[in-house]
Design brief:
The protein is an alpha+beta fold and 254 residues long. The protein contains 9 helices and 15 strands. Helix content is 32%, strand content 26%.
């Protein structure tokens, strides 16, 4: 089955969300609320997701939607869109450009289209799982084979110990070239486009991770949960090239 029409529609959703988000970026009047799970949310998060939902319901009324801000609608449908209007709200609300909109399409529960749009950087990384494009040009993971030459990224080093083994993660950091917290979805774009080697997060929600799966795979990378299993049924992510990924999983699970 061709997913081209949905690939193109994901671009439309990304553009629509960016149009809503941009006026609020670096806007001192932006107010940040705290949700019941202690995570931050802004008017831009809600307005962007609302706009994407409107477009989906108009174009594909039979499709389901799962969104961070407004929950599930027809989530048992054959096709389901999974939306995170602003992945990296803390960065967005702090004036940091390393935030993005995540859009995934599930077909029968499997992610077949994934998009990471970075409004502040004017970058769109999108894939159908067979090829990943960054602003229309094909990208690939780089061919680093040894951990000592690898750049490791994560969203929050301090969060690792709450959900995974901090000791094992420390060992991994010691074996890599260096570690940076260029996190949230931006780190996965860097891996997919060959600028960094490893990106991992110890805990994630479905709207955080599903768009990443086609993007990393379409760039020739490997993406699993922290234990090396299917990321779709997990709640954590490790993304790397095929040479490094098994080395990383081994260290994380000793």
């Amino acid at each position: 089955m061709s997913y081209r029409q949905f690939f193109d529609f994901a671009k439309i959703l990304a553009d629509a969300a960016q149009t809503v988000i941009q006026p609020w970026y670096f806007n001192q009047s932006l107010e940040v609320e705290t949700k019941s799970d202690a995570s931050p949310v802004t008017i831009a998060d809600r307005a962007a997701e609302k706009r994407m939902r409107e477009l989906i319901e108009s174009k594909y009324p039979e499709h389901g939607v799962i969104g961070e801000e407004f929950g599930n609608s027809n989530a048992e449908a054959e096709f389901v869109w999974v939306l995170d209007p602003i992945d990296g709200t803390k960065s967005f609300a702090s004036g940091c450009p390393l935030f993005g909109t995540l859009i995934a399409l599930l077909h029968g529960g499997k992610p077949v289209v994934g998009a990471i749009n970075l409004p502040a950087l004017n970058q769109l990384c999108i894939s159908d799982g067979s090829q990943t494009l960054l602003n229309g040009k094909p990208v690939r993971v780089r061919n680093t084979e040894n951990l000592q030459n690898a750049v490791l990224l994560t969203t929050d080093v301090n969060a690792v110990g709450k959900y995974q083994s901090a000791r094992n993660f420390d060992q991994l950091m010691q074996q890599t070239r260096f570690t940076r917290t260029w996190g949230d979805c931006y780190g996965y774009v860097l891996v997919a486009s060959g600028w960094s080697d490893l990106m991992m997060d110890p805990v994630m929600n479905p709207w955080d991770l599903l768009a990443l799966v086609p993007v990393i795979r379409g760039a020739g990378g490997v993406i699993t949960d922290w234990q090396g299993n299917d990321p779709v049924s997990g709640n954590s992510i490790v993304a790397a090239n095929p040479a490094l990924h098994p080395q990383v999983i081994d260290i994380l699970n000793r």
